[in-house]
Design brief:
Layout lengths: L9 H14 L6 E5 L11 E7 L17 E7 L2 E7 L10 H4 L1 H9 L3 E10 L9 E9 H4 L26 H14 L5 E8 L8 H10 L3 E3 L3 H9 L3 E11 L12 H25 L8 H11 L1
Parallel strand pairs: 1-4, 1-5, 5-9, 6-7, 7-8
Antiparallel strand pairs: 2-3, 3-4, 5-8, 6-9
Helix pairs in contact: 1-3, 3-7, 5-8
The structure holds hypoxanthine (HPA).
């Protein structure tokens, strides 16, 4: 038995993965995580098999408004997929290993490529509400304080002790997103940027937003990065995209105040376009973009 005590152990993930695989014929190679207000994407899956999180062994329950809290299996444009309608967050009070456990379950079910979406506040002054930001890199603020899903004993069956993160966001998938966005006429509102994760649940102060912006972050949110770290550790390719739902308040004279209703409303307005972008990307995934290419490189690097 592994020494991990807070959740996400190999044995625990294996039980959950095996249970799910006995309940559905779908053998997903693509995993999708839907962020706040963006759950409708799961509705595009054909021949759905839906599991409430509360019915899945070892799974957490989602407590956030705008997050449905279910796992949807099916095919999207012919590709077998599994889709999280709602994710787990640090601010819900769960151990970070539990929050990210679905990534390990997906890995054990055969997922090769992860696509994550989230809602984020725009720090970059050029960003507008409703923009899509393709995440090219991240700043993991909780990680600076030792809050990292990989802290604790490493289980080599998932990945190496010291995984590389300079290639966390797959270059080919980002290029694919830009190509698809250009074809769909979305390029005017699609950006590339750096996402900074904080623990939440409060939105940031003005001083915090100013600091994050100076540090190099283009958008700020409360999710995704922990999932990316665990997915990359396990050798899955990652693509992540933010919907800019509000502009972070950077100015003491501003009357703007960030709030969750604004986040959900922007999600509703842009959700359809995000669905089209992601589903077209999934349709175009080539077999070699759906491959476990990076884990071997990681393993070799860390062995030497
Ligand atoms: N800050 C943090 N998380 C968020 C924001 C924000 O402004 N908007 C949506 N999620």
């Amino acid at each position: 038995m592994s020494e991990t005590t807070c959740g996400g152990s190999y044995e625990e993930c294996r039980i959950t993965a095996d249970w799910l695989l006995t309940q559905t014929q779908v053998r997903p190679t693509v995993g999708i995580v839907c962020g706040s207000g963006l759950s409708a994407l799961a509705g595009m899956l054909k021949d759905q098999k839906v599991f409430k999180y509360s019915d899945i062994p070892n799974f957490l329950h989602s407590t956030v408004r705008g997050h449905a809290g279910q796992l949807v299996f099916g095919t999207l444009k012919g590709k077998p997929c599994v889709c999280m309608q709602g994710r787990f967050h640090l601010y819900e009070g769960h151990p970070i290993q539990k929050i990210t456990m679905p990534m390990r379950v997906f890995k054990l079910m055969g997922v090769k490529t992860m696509i994550m979406t989230n809602a984020a506040g725009g720090l970059n002054q050029d960003y507008k509400v409703g923009d899509f930001m393709i995440i090219k890199d991240h700043i993991n603020m909780p990680g600076f304080a030792g809050v990292n899903p990989l802290a604790g004993p490493n289980d080599d069956r998932f990945g190496v002790r010291f995984p590389c993160m300079s290639d966390a966001y797959d270059r080919e998938l980002r290029q694919l997103a830009h190509d698809v966005a250009a074809e769909l006429g979305y390029s005017d509102f699609v950006r590339d940027g750096v996402y900074c994760v904080l623990g939440g649940p409060n939105f940031e102060t003005i001083a915090e937003c100013r600091m994050l912006h100076r540090m190099g972050a283009d958008a700020v949110g409360m999710s995704t990065i922990h999932e990316v770290i665990v997915a990359r550790h396990a050798g899955m390719r990652c693509f992540a995209m933010s919907l800019i739902t509000n502009r972070a308040v950077m100015d003491y004279d501003s009357q703007e105040r960030a709030n969750h209703d604004e986040v959900l409303e922007t999600g509703r307005q842009r959700a359809k376009q995000m669905e089209v972008l992601v589903s077209t990307m999934v349709a175009r995934l080539k077999d070699d973009q759906n491959d476990d290419a990076n884990s071997d490189a990681n393993n070799d690097r860390n062995k030497s």
